[in-house]
Amino acid sequence: MGQRSEAPYQAGLRHAVRSYSFQTLTALGLMSMLLAGCQGTGNSGLTTVDLAQASSQNIGSLTAVIQANPRDPQGYNVRGSAYGKAGRYKDALKDFDTALQLNPNFYQAYSNRALIYRYMGDNAKAIADYSRALQINPQYDAAYIGRGNVYRLAGRLDQAMADFNRAIEQDTTNGRAYHNRGLIYQARGQHKQAIEDFSTALSLQSTAPEPYNGRGISYVALGDYDNAFDDFNAAINLDNRLAESWANQALVYEQRGERDKASKSYMRAVQLDPNYKPAKDGLARTR
């Protein structure tokens, strides 16, 4: 919501990895394991408020503002975003509904509500709200990005690509437009274009680990393991709690024949996410 969207980058292409040696893995198998951690999205879209504002104390403060100005739709929009950050989706929907009753042309509230619908698994309502936001304001880049991500995760890549292109045509400064378009290029095997988009995303949001993981995967696909390794390490340095970053690093160690280091990185990935199959399979290979 606001100028960003899903924090998530949820896993999209999870392929089983057989337990034979790394040297026998095909390039497709390697890409499948890496892509398992790169295709997702999270809840960073609720950016009308900072994450800290999702605390009970700050939600209470926002409630006091609403009580003082009950006819101001912006107050409900901001508190709805805070509820969304806190995972209180039903409360968030109520606030966005109220904001839109007070101002039916509040396109940001439509976009924010769309993201909540997406988190709740109602993609049809999410797309309808993003589309309504764009009817009101055809230049609203956040809605193109949000709707494009719903399309991308549903496998509707042509529609997703069109939305990301529209956001980029608006001169968006939101790195997610480039990151998500890069994921589509990557899925289509267009890795040079993917690397360009991931690099642009990093120039716009240099503290996000996901574009580093994405670019690293495309470097692997092109056989550039040194640059891939640098990117996976950068992702870990930015956020050492992402299992896929450790598993990606481990794959490069494994490719280099450094099985002990690979095993340690796979172990770290499994500790972070015991259900992350690429890490579990990698650990089984390198123990």
TrEMBL record:
PANTHER family noted in UniProt: TETRATRICOPEPTIDE REPEAT PROTEIN 6, UDP-N-ACETYLGLUCOSAMINE--PEPTIDE N-ACETYLGLUCOSAMINYLTRANSFERASE SPINDLY-RELATED
TPR repeats: 73-106, 107-140, 141-174, 175-208, 209-242, 243-276
Keywords: Repeat, TPR repeat
Protein name: Tetratricopeptide (TPR) repeat protein
Domain of life from the UniProt record: Bacteria
Species: Paenochrobactrum gallinarii
Keyword Transport tagged: no
Keyword hit for Repeat: yes
